[in-house]
Design a protein that fits this description.
Elements (H helix, E strand, L loop, with lengths): L5 E4 L4 H22 L7 H8 L1 E3 L3 H16 L9 H10 L11 H5 L7 E3 L3 E4 L12 H15 L5 E4 L3 E4 L8 E6 L7 E7 L3 E5 L27 E8 L2 H11 L4 H10 L4 E6 L4 E4 L2
Antiparallel strand pairs: 1-5, 2-4, 3-4, 5-6, 6-9, 7-8, 9-10, 10-11, 11-12
Length: 286
């Protein structure tokens, strides 16, 4: 999915551990061939190219259903159909860009999760030119899948990082896993740490991918406005699952503080650590 991955696990038998790692890597690659915008033969690229996908993998239908839940919970702020906006700005700021030929309002007309339909037999778009990106949730989904595989295999101590973090139990010595939160502007420095045991942590930041040199236009795109709000230097979410943490860190990055608090307080086990552009830290249930 274009992100670094790391797996730390403890087991008394090295052979068992190595076998688990091989199976995990194979599963992560299989899921990447479904959700990736980078893998040329992924099912998501096929869907975006054709506007429909017959006999979709069950994991895609499952992830779309979970996406709908977060879309509703955030009042439409979490929306995987923002891919046309991403393409619009990528084109606009490239040396060969042609986005100026298409007004933003026309691009926004192709954004809206309400125009995505899905069943076990078919995923389709109601409007031509629509496209999905699952980058704001799929890494968490894959992280959870790896966590569940290890748990089913009998592992009791592991830390999975497939773009987001998910802890299985504690460290081998009983200590909680400690996740360092990097400074978005100085990624070699940590500005805080969070402890987890069986939970998940995800961080989103505007600096993760920018279109222009000043970073005023970035990958965290508002599906209703078509802009890139920059309220925060980074948003970190602690949640029961990595799927939840991933989706909410994406959505919260473009939401005002009061809206974040309202949504977070409605969801069990969700905490938020915000770092504003003024270097202020705001904590909600963390």
């Amino acid at each position: 999915m274009g992100a670094e991955a790391e797996l730390s696990l403890y087991h008394e038998d090295e052979g068992t551990a190595r076998d688990a790692i091989e199976r995990v890597v194979a599963e992560a690659r299989r899921l990447e061939r479904i959700f990736s915008l980078y893998h040329p033969s992924s099912k998501l690229i096929e869907l975006n190219a054709n506007g429909a996908l017959a006999s979709p993998p069950p994991e895609m239908v499952d992830l779309l259903e979970q996406s709908r839940g977060f879309w509703k919970a955030t009042g439409g702020t979490f929306d995987p159909t923002v891919q046309p906006l991403f393409e619009h700005y990528a084109d606009r700021f490239s040396s060969l860009g042609s986005a100026k030929k298409q007004p933003l309002v026309q691009v926004l007309d192709r954004v809206g999760f309400e125009n995505v339909t899905y069943t076990d037999e078919l995923v389709s778009f109601k409007k031509p030119g629509m496209a999905l990106t699952l980058n704001g949730i799929a890494q968490g989904y894959i992280t959870d899948r790896v966590h569940d595989m290890l748990k089913a295999a009998g592992f009791k101590s592991a830390l999975v990082n497939m773009g987001e973090y998910r802890a299985l139990g504690t460290k081998s010595d009983g200590a909680l896993w400690r996740i360092g939160i990097a400074d978005a502007k100085k990624p070699w420095q940590l500005f805080d740490t969070l402890e987890v045991s069986g939970g998940a942590i995800a961080t989103s930041a505007p600096s993760g991918a920018t279109f222009d040199a000043d970073g005023q236009h970035h990958h965290l795109l508002h599906p209703l406005l078509g802009t890139s709000p920059s309220y925060y230097r980074s948003v970190t979410v602690k949640a029961p699952s990595a799927t939840c943490a991933d989706a909410l860190s994406t959505a919260f990055s473009i939401m005002p503080v009061d809206d974040i608090k309202r949504v977070a307080l409605q969801l069990a086990g969700v905490g938020v650590l915000l770092r504003t552009q003024a270097d202020e830290q705001i904590r909600v249930n963390v």
